[in-house]
Amino acid sequence: MAWMTRWPGGFPLFVDHAEGSRFVDVDGIEYVDFCMGDTGAMAGHAVPGLAEALFERARLGITTMLPSADAVWVGAELERRFGLPKWQLAMTATDANRFVLRLARKATGRPKVAVIDWCYHGTVDETLAVLDRGKVVSRPGAIGPPIDPVGTTRVVPFNDVAALDEALSHGDVAALLMEPALTNIGIVLPEPGYLDEVRRVTRRHGVVLVIDETHTICAGPGGCTRAWGLEPDALTIGKPIGGGMPVAVYGLSDEFAAAAEGFTADHTADVSGIGGTLAGNQLALAAVRATLSTTLLDDDYERMIDLAYHWTAGVEDAYRSRDLDWHVQQLGARAEYWFSPPPRNGAEAAAASDPELEAYMHLHALNRGVLLTPFHNMALMSPAHGRSDVDRHTEAFAEAVASLVD
Ligand SMILES: Cc1ncc(COP(=O)(O)O)c(C=O)c1O
Q1: Is the beta carbon of 212 within 6 A of some atom in ligand 1?
Q2: Measuring CA to CA, how many Å separate 132 from each of 150, 156, 175, 358?
Q3: Looking at the whole model, is its pTM more than 0.90?
């Protein structure tokens, strides 16, 4: 994968096996993992019970293009966690986002989508766009954009209600797709009242509000949506919900589902542009059931959030003791340090990045048996992490800071 070139040290480690919060490379060296497959393994590596459930389901048949009883359990559990009543399956969060955007265009009859500047929602064409001096342009690095994103996308800065209102006022936007807190350009938290205003403005303009909880599930068992009482028209989530198996889901409100659902009603349903032959296969559903019935539960979050708090406190102590103007931010079970004051939006976050210093911090940690997410300075706690994992990072971080300053 392209991002394997992003690991510090010029080459990626090759993994032998992973369990709980740790993995062992092919040289037999053990590491504490705070990347957790960039959230894919947030439930922990080798989730107890998942391998057995997958083995059992594989023996009973992996895919038939028919639903299994697990679909009923999974639908009810997703409604319990996130509050939305209707759910569909995809294989990846990228696909879940693509499908919801198609449904939003169908429901509203409008062509464009709005996204947040410096967002990431997977390889969805319309979302690979940023603002350059107020103009929508292809995101740097995006390969072969199908058409100029000006034709498909309006981009607005995070934490800017006036810009959102203006972008939606043209009447051509079907959906606003956003993370409730940015996690993909570092953690950028919403200012008080911002998300209420987003809901009010999207409603006023008749725009479908899609919340992508793929990473922000770190805020609690029902993501930010439940933790903060959000009311999206649609919600997408992939990566962690199948314990690392490729599976994603998207939920729809009754109202949005009623406006969008007609595509299943006639013989053209198989070419609707929604779904995939293997989406909703029985193995994927078994993975979601085994994961969500055993992990990422209320009491897991209590421990994970407490650990993220300790990780944050350790980092803060180290840079404060050396009078550095660095910062650290926590979003539930996820935490991140900055070499600057906390940014207010994606552009500020992108400008604050310091690739050389970042590479040093990551490689320094890796050489002491600690893996961070290769993009920015983020750590994610799983139910399998413990205080000794956090302490190992705190020690390595303090040593790195001292090596820079003393
Ligand atoms: C918020 C968010 N949505 C969607 C995706 C896409 O996930 P996938 O690559 O599994 O399709 C990502 C991936 O990092 C993400 O962070």
Answers
A1: yes
A2: 12, 11, 22, 24
A3: yes
Query: Cβ(334) to ligand 1 under 6 A?
Result: no
From 49, 16, 20, select the one nearest 32 (Cα to Cα).
20
**Which of 169, 262, 254, 180 is CA-nearest to residue 220?**
180
* CB-CB neighbours of 282 under 10 Å: 20
Mutational pocket test of ligand 1: of 215, 225, 331, the residue with most ligand atoms within 8 Å of the beta carbon: 215
Task: Give pLDDT tens digits for 61-83.
Answer: 999 999 999 999 999 999 999 99
Give the pLDDT of residue 138.
97
Per-residue model confidence as pLDDT tens digits over 145-183: 999 999 999 999 999 999 999 999 999 999 999 999 999
List the structure tokens of 198: 């987003």
**pLDDT for res 262:** 77
Q: Which residues of the chain have pLDDT under 50?
A: none
- DSSP conformational letter for 12: P
- The verdict on the CB of residue 185 being under 6 Å from ligand 1 is no
Helices 387-405 and 298-321 pack at an angle, to 10 degrees, of 20
Binding site membership of 238 for ligand 1 (Cβ less than 6 Å): yes
| Residue 94 Cα: closest atom of ligand 1 | 11
Within 13 A of 214's CA, how many CA atoms are on the CB side? Answer: 34
